[in-house]
Amino acid sequence: MQTLDISLSLQSRWPVLVIAILAAVIGSQAVITGTFSIIKQCCSLSCFPKVKIVHTSSTVHGQIYIPEINWILMILCLAVTIGFRDTKHLTNAQGLAIITVMLVTTCLMSLVIVLCWNNSIVFSLVFLLFFGAIEVLYFSASLVKFREGAWVPIMLSLFFMIMMCVWHYGTIKKYEFDVENKVSISWLLNLGPSLGIVRVRGIGLIHTELMSGIPAIFSHFVTNLPAFHQVLVFLCIKSVPIPHIRPEERFWVGRVGPKQYRLYRVVVRYGYRDVPKDDIEFEKDLVCSIAEFIRCGDSDDQNGSLDGATDHACERLSSISKGLPFQEDDDSEVNGSDSSILSTGKETYQNAVGPKAKRVRFVLPKDAQIDGEVRSELQELTDAREAGMSFITGRAHMKAKSGSGLVKKIAINYIYEFLRRNSRGSVTAANIPHASTLEVGMVCQV
């Protein structure tokens, strides 16, 4: 009889084990999906270090995958399971975590009742007291098991809360520093067209997060280095919450300062499913967009302006639906003179200052009316393109001001800097070649 009971017990164990495994898979998938969504929202609110977010669907925006968080969850699960080796401790930790989530949800729901549903505060308080009282009883019962495994979710929550608070605090201080030290147009005008330094041939591409104004890294560069490129482009790359951006709406080009300064601002927008081009194609599209902006003229506002980028009249951005095409030919393939070339149906520009590997020729429409000033500006852009393009990126190092408290020094100098060094940098659409990259560092005293 005992043998029969043992046999039935063993036979019934396998179906229960299969059901338990399937339930664990479903529950873990819900936890992983929820964690990804929360992390993404925290990154959008600058409350969590930047991580790689992979959008797995072209139609549904919420379907995402975060590799770093997935690995962290796996390591934590293995660490807790191996460390406890007891289902009792695991149950205590899970119980406290669940009841804490329910209590926090009830508190947030009471705020939704008042702020979103516009109901009375009395109704919100009644809801909070009724459901909160029940959940507080369960929460206090779970706290009794604090030493028997319930301390794990408390410690993990405390760790991530400190990390998020420090990151948010450091991000706010960094933004305030950028705004306070942003270079004004008047400062730029006082430097003159040469910017007070030697302008060398080539295009300087300065990466910045600002869509208006001149970043502090520019003044830092001008103050410490004796030369800059003859054409400067402030490049801002933005990701928008839609799958794809049409090519004719990707580039927004504007001018910074007067024409003779040869300073431009380009905002490039990418959807979360757009595949960035390589550095060569990106450079060509960028130069074509700037050339088309020069040809059309600054006063042409038929394409509208980009929201949030019209803080100054001379910084108005225009959408470039189609860039002015150009050709790059070897010296042996160019049989023209030192001036512009006229051909049937089109006019091309060619610069022949000296022997070079490539010659650049902009292809102009047949009926294009080009005045002398625009011609000169296009010629200088051609000159700069032939000389090559350099990518200039800024890296700010945060440091607490002298006289700051011990807590602030630890938070900024150690925790925030550690998180910043080990998190992903700014989003850049182009695969920047390392040989053409110059990184400029500066210390931000906050």
TrEMBL record:
Primary location group: membrane
K+ potassium transporter C-terminal domain span: 202-445
The organism's place on the tree of life at top rank: Eukaryota
Keywords, alphabetical: Ion transport, Membrane, Potassium, Potassium transport, Transmembrane, Transmembrane helix, Transport
Localization in the cell: Membrane
Membrane topology according to the record: Multi-pass membrane protein
GO cellular component, one term: membrane
Short name of one Pfam family: K_trans_C
Occurrences of domain K+ potassium transporter integral membrane (ranges): 12-189
Region of interest (Disordered), residue spans: 323-342
Single GO term (MF): potassium ion transmembrane transporter activity
Annotated TM spans: 16-39, 64-84, 96-115, 121-139, 151-170
PANTHER family: OSMOTIC STRESS POTASSIUM TRANSPORTER, POTASSIUM TRANSPORTER 24
Protein family per UniProt: Belongs to the HAK/KUP transporter (TC 2.A.72.3) family.
The protein's name in its UniProt record: Potassium transporter
Protein source organism: Aegilops tauschii subsp. strangulata (Goatgrass)
